UniProtKB/TrEMBL annotation:
Name listed for the protein in its UniProt record: DYW domain-containing protein
Domain of life: Eukaryota
Keyword Mitochondrion in annotation: yes
Domain DYW stretches: 569-661
Keywords assigned: Mitochondrion, Repeat, Transit peptide
MF GO annotations: RNA binding; zinc ion binding
């Protein structure tokens, strides 16, 4: 095979794994030929023949140097001058290297030479060009080449479909498949695997079933690559039983197959099933990958299981997994999300390689825990060492500033986005509105919305509504709610927040109107639940639900606490009770909220002085926030509560949020942010105790029996 480029530069970029001595010898010979040539643009016939022989080296030895070297000899220069006429193999080799290393600019140069050559209509060459553009992410150019091809074969269709799939344009990939069949091209395993993945990307169960049927029809369902994609597709669509069935039917499995199912269980918070499959994977001789560990760690963090997360961390150390890539950043995120920002910082400090993802994970951790000053210091350190921030970085630091009341810093960083060519998204605008709103600058926030270069969304008006509720500004609050109703009339949260505002002002007729609208529209409030992990078992509580086996003890504990904290200054906050009843009845209605029951249960079942961690699927209410502050002072323990948007660290009668905690209706994390930034609440009122002590003990014994603890 011919060499892609012939370098004579002092420091060529070696993109191969062949013999260095062989390459050096050939380069020296080429230099001699070049220097002995009488012209810089042509070779004699004998020189060209000898050069042709030298260029026939293994594909692994191909080089891609810079074209800017003064002493360099570039193969494209030779082609352009007519000194060298490449054949199909040489063009394919050049395109292959451009594809392999994502060299889109060089690929375009090769394509331009091909268009002026005798091979411009060659189907094989056109397929290579199409594949190069698709793999390099230039789908418009790939589609242009595809549409201009007078004839297409299976490789053509597969290259275009795969390009769409790999660049997350699933709908385009699926739309192309019927056309492929109509033209009489038969799909292969790569075509079907890409189509199945596309169905998984958009969680299209119906399309997935159709493609699965095609896999059966063409006999590729037992292919390990296609089969693994089918397992992953069903898991992504939420059909774990079908994913498991497809997995069990696979005659040949690989690490990808196992990871697909383990990840599926992990996404659903089914940690027990994921761990059991993890055990079986090793028992059958398959080696877990970094992706396997990351999936399990994510599963533990999704339910706030710090104990299990630490245990998985210990396993990664036991099996020699270094703190790099997926595993390191996932561990960092797990600790931050499970309520231990100190452990997250330790992982960050021990990462072998720190990148923008590492900084983003640490910044979002600080933001969620309300540590605004630490987030600012982290961001400044990131800029100092030369790591360029992206849109997620700015979203993280802006949210940290908003939640900590750092108005000047937040405004400064929003202006800094332009310097780094980061275009503000909806989520960034939401955060700035929230920043102004929390500072009490409601009219400035309203003006900011009106002057925005984009159309305001429900999330943006929701931030203003949340701030209006905080500062009891009925005028702006009602105005913001009206804007939301026009954009998103079916969202129950708007109605609930507006009703709360009316209730706070004693406008009970307006409360009744809002509730009637909700009832007539079939809108319902999401049921609240809280859960706490005790000895590897997750215990879930809902308000006024007394089904816990320790129910009597839990109620007595909370009633005792309630009496004691009232004695030291606690006054129940009934301002948001949507009932026109007397004060005593209002107090009864909020006495047994889910987080209060979870707290009482934790105090009964944990040792004195230990930290208590409670998770909740919606925002913690004002009364519970106040009550837990007093309890932390009374029992002399740190209590950490994670709700949908942040962590609250209660210690000695105060909270880390500084009572600057009321979150907007639509969290800025929920629109426009990357998935890993959100706090997914897989646990809800229907959650069972996933990891019971006995089950976990049996799994531990399995590991210990293999020396894996």
């Amino acid at each position: 095979m011919r060499k892609v480029r012939i370098p004579c530069s002092a420091a060529p970029l070696l993109l191969g794994t062949g013999s260095v001595k062989l390459i050096e010898w050939r380069l020296n010979t080429i230099r001699t030929l070049w220097q002995s040539s009488s012209a810089a643009t042509t070779f004699s016939d004998s020189h060209r023949d000898r050069l042709d022989d030298l260029c026939v080296i293994d594909d692994r030895d191909l080089l891609l140097p810079s074209r800017n070297s003064e002493t360099g000899l570039h193969v494209l220069d030779l082609i352009g001058s007519g000194s060298l006429e490449p054949n199909r193999s040489m063009y394919n080799a050049m395109l292959k290297r451009c594809t392999q290393f994502g060299k889109l600019r060089e690929g375009r140069l090769v394509h331009s030479h091909i268009l002026n050559s005798k091979l411009r209509d060659d189907l094989v060459i056109r397929n290579s060009v199409l594949f190069m553009y698709a793999r390099c992410g230039s789908l418009e150019e790939a589609r242009r080449v595809f549409d201009e091809m007078p004839s297409k074969d299976m490789v053509t269709w597969t290259s275009m479909i795969t390009g769409y799939s790999q660049n997350e344009c699933a709908q385009h990939a699926l739309a192309l498949f019927p056309q492929m069949l109509q033209f009489g091209s038969r799909p292969n395993e790569f075509t079907l695997s890409s189509l199945v993945k596309s169905c998984g990307f958009i969680s299209s169960y119906k399309d997935g079933q159709k493609i699965h049927a095609c896999c059966l029809k063409y006999g590729f369902h037992s292919n390990v690559f296609v089969g693994s994609s089918i397992v992953d597709m069903y898991a992504r669509c939420g059909y774990l039983s079908e994913a498991r069935l497809s997995f069990d039917k696979l005659e040949n499995k690989n690490e990808v197959s196992w990871n697909a199912l383990i990840t599926g269980y992990a996404r659903k918070g089914e940690l027990e099933d994921a761990l059991a499959l993890f055990i079986r994977m090793q028992r059958e001789g398959y080696k877990p990958t970094e992706f396997t560990y990351s999936s399990l760690i994510c599963a533990s963090s999704s339910i706030g299981s710090l104990e299990q997360g630490k245990w998985l961390h210990a396993l990664t150390i036991k099996w020699g997994k270094k703190l790099t890539g997926y595993v390191g950043n996932t561990l960092l995120h797990m600790y931050a999300k499970s309520g231990s920002i100190q452990d997250a910082r330790k992982v960050f400090n021990r990462l072998l390689k720190i990148d923008v993802v590492s900084f983003n994970s640490m910044l979002i951790g600080y933001a969620q825990h309300g540590f605004g000053k630490e987030a600012v210091q982290q961001f400044e350190e990131m800029l100092r060492i030369g790591i360029e921030p992206n849109d997620i970085t700015f979203l993280s630091v802006l949210t940290a500033c908003s939640r900590a009341g750092l108005l000047d810093e937040g405004k400064n960083y929003f202006g800094l986005m332009k310097k780094y060519n980061v275009e503000p998204k909806i989520s960034h605008y939401v955060t700035i509105v929230d920043l102004f709103g929390r500072a009490g600058l409601l009219y400035q926030a309203k003006s900011f919305i009106e002057e925005m270069p984009i159309e305001p969304t429900a999330a943006i008006w929701g931030a203003l509504l949340g701030a209006s509720r905080m500062y009891k500004n009925m005028e702006i609050g009602v105005y913001a709610a009206e804007q939301i109703f026009e954009i998103e009339p079916s969202y129950s949260g708007t109605h609930i927040l507006l009703a709360n505002m009316y209730a706070s002002a004693g406008r009970w007729k307006d409360v009744a109107k809002v509730r009637k609208v909700m009832k007539d529209s079939g809108l319902k409030k999401e049921p609240a639940c809280s859960w706490v992990e005790i000895q590897n078992s997750v215990h879930v509580f809902v308000a006024n639900d007394f089904a816990n086996p320790q129910n009597e003890k839990v109620l007595k504990m909370w009633e005792k606490l309630n009496h004691e904290i009232k004695a030291i200054g606690y006054v129940p906050d009934t301002s948001h009770v949507l009932l026109c009843v007397d004060q005593q009845e209002k107090e009864v209605s909020i006495q047994y909220h889910s987080e209060k029951l979870a707290l009482a249960f934790a105090l009964l079942n944990t040792s004195p002085g230990s930290t208590i961690r409670i998770m909740k699927n919606i925002r913690v209410c004002g009364d519970c926030h106040s009550a837990i502050k007093y309890v932390s002072s009374l029992v002399k323990r740190e209590i950490i509560v994670r709700d949908t948007n942040r962590f609250h660290h209660f210690r000695d009668g105060s909270c880390s949020c500084g009572d600057y905690w009321l979150d907007p209706l639509h969290s800025s994390w929920k629109e426009g942010a990357e998935a890993f930034l959100t706090l997914p609440i897989e646990a809800s009122a229907g959650v069972k105790c996933k990891m019971h002590k006995g089950v976990f003990a049996s799994l531990r014994s399995e590991w210990e029996g293999k020396g894996m603890d």
